[in-house]
Amino acid sequence: xxxxxxxxxxxxxxxxxxxxxxxxxxxxxxxxxxxxxxxxxxxxxxxxxxxxxxxxxxxxxxxxxxxxxxxxxxxxxxxxxxxxxxxxxxxxxxxxxxxxxxxxxxxxxxxxxxxxxxxxxxxxxxxxxxxxxxxxxxxxxxxxxxxxxxxxxxxxxxxxxxxxxxxxxxxxxxxxxxxxxxxxxxxxxxxxxxxxxxxxxxxxxxxxxxxxxxxxxxxxxxxxxxxxxxxxxxxxxxxxxxxxxxxxxxxxxxxxxxxxxxx
Length: 263
Hints:
Layout: E1 6-9, E2 17-22, E3 40-41, E4 47-54, E5 60-72, E6 75-79, E7 84-87, E8 90-93, E9 98-105, E10 114-123, E11 146-155, E12 179-186, E13 189-196, E14 202-211, E15 214-226, E16 231-236, E17 245-250, E18 257-259
Parallel strand pairs: 1-11, 3-11
Antiparallel strand pairs: 2-4, 4-9, 5-6, 5-8, 5-10, 7-9, 10-11, 12-13, 13-16, 14-15, 14-17, 17-18
C-alpha cells in the first residue's frame, strides 16, 4: 500500500464512490441514497449486501476486506476473521457502474449478542498517470488513495436494534445502549469517558455539553461508537463545569438525549 491512505468513516456518499447497503432481495429506494451506511445481519439472515457505485470519471479498483471490530484500551481494535466473508474481495468498477458486494456469515451469532465488524474498502492506486485538465503532457499531480470504513453489525436470536417496518419484531428483543459518562484527567489532559453496559452499540452524533443556559458542542457530526461492554475516551480541549450535562444523539434517534455524569 503506497503511503498512508486517507480514511473516511462512511456516513455520507463520496462524490466519486457511492456506497449503499441493502438486505439481499430487497431494493433500496432512491430517497435512501446518500444517507449513512449501516448494513446489518439479522439473526435470521445469512447474507446482506453493500452496493458500490462509481460516480467518478476514472475506473475504480478496490480491495474489500471484513475485520472483527472490538474496543479495548480506549481504542478501536481490528482482527482478521472468517465469520463474515465479503465477496468479491477485489472489484474493478468503471465510471457510472455498480458492484454488488455480498456479505455472508459462516456461523451464527450466540443468542442475545451483537457482534461488530468493519468493512474496509481500499482504493488501489492506478499505474496510469493522471492527465492534467489543461491537456498538457507535463504537470505535477497527486493521486490520493481513499479508505472507506463501513460498520457492520450481526445479531443473535432474540436481539435486534435497527428499526425495520418490513419485519415483524418482538419488542422484548429490542436492544438499547446503556451509557454512562464521567470526566477523567490523565497526564495533565482531560477526557470524556463513555461506558456502554447495554447489549448493543451506541453511535454518537451531535455531542455537546449543557452548562446552565448554554450548550457547547463537542462534535457536531459523528463523534464515534461505543460497543457493548466497552469504554471509550475523547479529549476535552476546554474546562468542564462540575454540573455540566452531556447531550448526544444515540443511533440516529429523533431526539437528543441528556445524560448527567456518573456519581
